[in-house]
Write a structure and sequence with these properties.
Elements: H1 16-23, H2 27-34, H3 41-53, E1 78-81, H4 90-93, H5 101-112, E2 133-136, H6 150-167, E3 173-177, H7 179-192, E4 208-211, E5 220-225, H8 230-235, H9 240-254
Parallel strand pairs: 1-2, 1-3, 3-5
Antiparallel strand pairs: 4-5
Helix pairs in contact: 1-6, 5-9, 6-7
Length: 259
Amino acid sequence: MSVSEGSGGRTDDPAFPEREAAAAPSVPVLDERVTHCRACPRLVAWREQVGREGRRAYTGWDYWARPVPGFGPDDARLLVIGLAPAAHGGNRTGRMFTGDRSGDVLYAALHQVGLASRPDATRADDGLRLYGVRVTAPVHCAPPANKPTPGERDTCRPWLAGELRLLRPTVRAVVVLGAFGWQATLPALAAGGWSVPRPRPAFAHGAHITLAATDGGPHLDLFGCYHVSQRNTFTGRLTPAMLRDVLSRAATAAGITPP
């Protein structure tokens, strides 16, 4: 069912994400609905401005300039959660972590641990496939200066909560990249069916917490990892080996056997 066949509410209504995510019957439908969202005026204005102005290196490129849905199979056992699409990365290509330096680091690591079919991600039609892992974010639009506001984070959260709900039958582990994503993800996990301790666990690279399911089903292994930002990777705060280690441990916890 498309957005137009749903509740009929305006896509710029702040309640649009919660309404449409809660009613989505599948991950593909949720992904499609995400792309229509206009609930955060500042983000809408910025992503579209970037799309119009572009960058010299991408002259002639038709920017996506819309919310970027998650990427990967809808029965994933492992979910990797970032922050938000990059202005000239996902906002340009229409796919998470695709076409920017952060994505270069992430997909190279996923490939090295056997979770991706190739080590690079350049465009949405490049043939890249993910094995047992899905990549998403708590904010689906590119924000100015890569910094969403707390209000934008909260408005967008229902999309992540809905994604977790729909992945509930298969997902067994989550890797969160960075403190912002961690803070945004914990409430979404609680809404998605897992018991989050109070006080909430603090973010740390290498953190590993097991969350019990509120419905008595399988638990979820939650891992923290520094974000794959250029600030972290260029300074050595996050090395490829550190990233591979977290991804490998998470894949093992999720029970993924690479092809």
